[in-house]
Amino acid sequence: xxxxxxxxPHYFIPQPLDNTRLAHLCGPLDENLRQIxxxxxxxxxxxxxxxxxxxxxxxxxxxxxxxxxxxxxxxxSVDEIQLALVEQRAKLGxxxxxxxxxxxxxxxADTDEEANADPADAELTETDIESPVLKTRRSDLRGRTPHQxxxxxxxxxxxxxxxxxxxxxxxxxxxxxxxxxALERDAVKRIVLTRPAVEAGERLGFLPGDLAQKVxxxxxxxxxxxxxxxxxxxxxxxxxxxxxEIAPLAYMxxxxxxxxFIILDEAQNTTPxxxxxxxxxxxxxxxxxxxxxxxxxxxxxxxxxxxxDAMNILxxxxxxxxxxxxxxxxxxxxxxxxxxxxxxxAAQATPVASTxxxxxxxxxxxxxxxxxxxxxxxxxxRSRHAVKK
Length: 389
What we know:
11 strands, six-stranded parallel sheet, Ribosomal Protein S8, Chain: A, domain 1, three-stranded antiparallel sheet, Rossmann fold, 2 domains, alpha/beta
């Protein structure tokens, strides 16, 4: 393996020289250059028509500059730069490490983090970078990182898939893209979107408007993904034909959903009872995708999260796949990935027992003696009972 001097500068000289393409490449006030510099931790200097990149990832930065200069006859958006940077960060292993070989259970883990890693992470190989292609009306999509590629493959190959990870990793967007792809291929007859409305609890009936208007604020991220993939007009037509349905989680009890693609978003805010109810709605020819972030639970203190409960109970159930995302999968502003890392580091430095449940490790923790079970009689009822005596 060749070694490179971290401080060795790399040069990029645009050919052929075109001032319009240079302006598109650099972006307004050199915003694109700043994004590349911040994401890859390099310094980029411009001297006339020459670009100089210095740092350990300078060669990668030059590759991105060359890649976008070739297509800079049009404006290069920040979003395009961000997606390219996500791919480069994944290749460089910036953020969490991803194992590149299957674990056989014989070799010891190098670190505590690897010892406690999710089994799905241990099975990632280099071939997982090649993602299945999702065909939608507007564009073809594929995973940008190994975890995203594994996530798409898991959805295509399993009836139930759980995607767990921080914000901005594409959990919801890719789930909706898979649903649209399945609907376009006639693999399913409808898409069902659901999400717990924690702020309103189960009292949606007290909110103004019809059913769609009551839950619309909670399903807005799913709507945004549909509009992006299908367009506004086509999405509205599919709602009218009931090919796409919104179903508040509280109203799904008793239903059996056949030939449907069901997405439960923000699942960390479900209770164990709600999660069980949702997973048992699946009928013949249906797929279910559950997404959530166990670090952003909005349940009342002491209420166990249904997502954490499902992760512990279903981890060995055949036919259910798990994908864990981390900061290296974030496809938003590079600062978001660093924010996620900072919060995770702080949580590890000062661990606090969660009141919403604990994700079980490979080795079971010792069982503590159970507290005495309280009777169903409340304190008020008990006092009345004593008065009657």
